[in-house]
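Recap for those who missed Tuesday's class. We walked through two folding examples back to back. For each one, the amino acid string is listed first and its predicted structure tokens come directly after. Nothing is annotated here on purpose, so try labeling regions yourself before you check the end of the notes.
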Amino acid sequence: MSYSDQAAYYDDMTKRTRIDMCVREQAQIFLGDARPEVVKLAQDVMSNNYGAMASVTAAVIVGPNFPTLDQDASLLAAVQGTFPTVAGSFYPELVA
């Protein structure tokens, strides 16, 4: 997908809100994760840290699952796979 397609997807509030809801739902689960950086990102998402939420959402959109994000299973897999990567980037000092 082109950068324009990705930007259009991000600018579509309905699509982006759908991803945000999946990120928030998964953050609740990641609060119990064994990796401290993942827990910290989950806490930030749950406390409405816009930068944390926007970073995960944007990373999902630019990821390899982008063409299939309209399917719930693909969106869930993309969020689950992206969340720890973003967490490691946000909090490298917590990565074991």
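Example two. Treat it independently of the first, because the proteins are unrelated.
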Amino acid sequence: MAAIGYDNRHRDHFFLSPVFAKAARAMTLEPYSPEKLDQFALELLDVAAILRTMANNSREHGITDLSLHDKKAQEWFSKLDHWAHKVQAEVQMQIVQARASRRASSVDRRE
């Protein structure tokens, strides 16, 4: 699957990019087990630990003014935060549906 992307090196033309194709494929639904969600959360905690270590090391060594390119990271985090809230709502809806289904089947068995 090829996708059209913009080549920053040559601002006057578009090209077929495997990177954009991968991003287009990435929009498919992926099954997540509780274990896979845990693994994802642990990977996020690993990133958080790196940032906390940087903050502590900077504080310890008196570095108070770090200049970082963070625009993309802030954008990604904002999108991740939005995604997490959306997925959380979807999971809660599935929980409500599962409970309702179990209650309905238990009522059917009693009758």
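Answers for example two:
The chain is about 70% helix and 5% strand.
The longest helix spans residues 71-110.
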